[in-house]
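Progress against Task 2.4 (sequence-to-structure conversion) is shown through the following example record, which the project officer requested during the mid-term review.
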Amino acid sequence: MVEIVGVGFAKTGKTYYFDPQGKTYEAGDMVIVETARGMELGHVLIANKEIDESELVAELKPVERMATEGDLKKYHENLGKREDALKVCAEKIEKHGLDMKLIDVEFMIDGSKIVFYFSADGRVDFRELAKDLAGHFKNRIELRQIGVRDEARMLGGIGICGRPLCCSKWLTDFHPVSIKMAKQQNLSLNPTKISGTCGRLMCCLNFEDKTYKELRKGMPKDNERVETPEGLAKVVNVDYFNGKINTRAIDKDPETGEEVFAQEIHSYTKEEIRRIGKNAKKVRDDDLSMNDDISEIMESADIEEIRELEELLREF
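Structure tokens generated for the chain above:
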């Protein structure tokens, strides 16, 4: 076991572990710590606690000291210089004709370095820009390229839900989000409706994915044929939260012998219906066979998806 304190910073929602070196820190304390960028002002998010060494991803760096009034004053002075620094950098970027979007600037608390954050579609040769900025500010300059999700985290904003962006408030890490999650939640695949402010798939799709996986277990898919207490039927849609399967009965036209679907919709629970063994199929306009569907899934599936498919086939 090793003793740590968790420290957060203004530019990221992530919590980093540091060695308290035998001193006691409380949540909310302002401290000075050394990071990869240099000496920074941070705030304690996790008071002294012991964790297993296996939870550490890198060697612990020490908490240098508690922040003093002078440190806090310096921090606010740096914030006051932010607008001018951004203006100067924007002018230099235009002067050098670089295709990059300036996002933010950060002054190290000890005055050792100035870090400019920017985004760009590809690699940018900013060596001449860095020299120009160093000559203007008489300080070490670091230009750091970030992605669109980090840009959204830094700038903040309001999501389509009407609340502040999760990444700028409490989300500590970005987890992979796939289009499969949107499909599993029966959402419209219109990019404008399932994308966040950053232009990537919304992080909240990932939050609810496990719940939908549990709710979908044992449930048929839309357009699948099932055996109900009233006979053979086609699944119209599935209400996962209420555990209801809405179906339309399948009959045969007495004159042509072709299948027809009843207009009336009946609802059943998954215990009340039976999925039809080897003959189970979907009523689809393109009339693809189930084998074609399986082949298509197997080509693009990951290990987890293949296991889910195997479990589904066992039910048949």
